[in-house]
Design goal:
With 151 residues, the chain is an alpha+beta fold. Helices cover 19% and strands 34% of the residues. A five-stranded antiparallel β-sheet has the order 1-2-3-4-5, with helices on one face.
Length: 151
């Protein structure tokens, strides 16, 4: 399966909206538009809306309700930070966000633990050879990751 190209933040939000409908979860979106509003533009001058190249940066924060609890922050630089049940996945390419969410809601994401050294990881496989793996820092698992544990 080929990844869909998501050239803009709005295209990514629409793809997330389609996934929310497909899996029956509700969502809310908060948009920040302009160089003075986006989180990574700390050097922007006051009342500066456009980047020096004339573009209008757009950032969005999407919350998806249900189990698991998921939030997605889409950045203007073509990447995203996805949080699943408190586990943060940084620098996920914007084009990979729909596949990531389909894996999480489709039951492909797993939790893997080991006794020595002790630790647990949330593993999210995507179509192709792409896999994301992050440590679970909270030792008290919520019901969703506890249900998908593999040893």
């Amino acid at each position: 399966m080929e990844k869909a190209r998501l050239p803009t933040t709005e295209a990514a939000v629409q793809a997330i909206r389609d996934i929310a409908v497909e899996f029956g979860v509700s969502m809310s979106v908060t948009d920040d538009i302009g160089a003075d509003q986006t989180s990574r533009r700390t050097s922007a001058e006051l009342r500066t809306v456009f980047d020096p190249d004339g573009s209008l940066p757009h950032e969005a924060f999407v919350e998806l309700t249900g189990s698991p609890a998921v939030s997605v922050r889409l950045f203007p630089e073509d990447d995203a930070r996805i949080t699943v049940e408190g586990v943060e996945f940084h620098d996920v390419p914007r084009d990979s966000v729909p596949g990531f969410l389909r894996s999480v809601y489709g039951g492909l994401a797993t939790t893997k633990g080991r006794l020595f050294p002790p630790g647990q990881w949330l593993i999210v496989p995507l179509p192709g050879d792409e896999t994301y793996k992050e440590p679970i820092l909270d030792l008290n698992l919520t019901p969703w990751p506890a249900r998908s544990t593999r040893r």
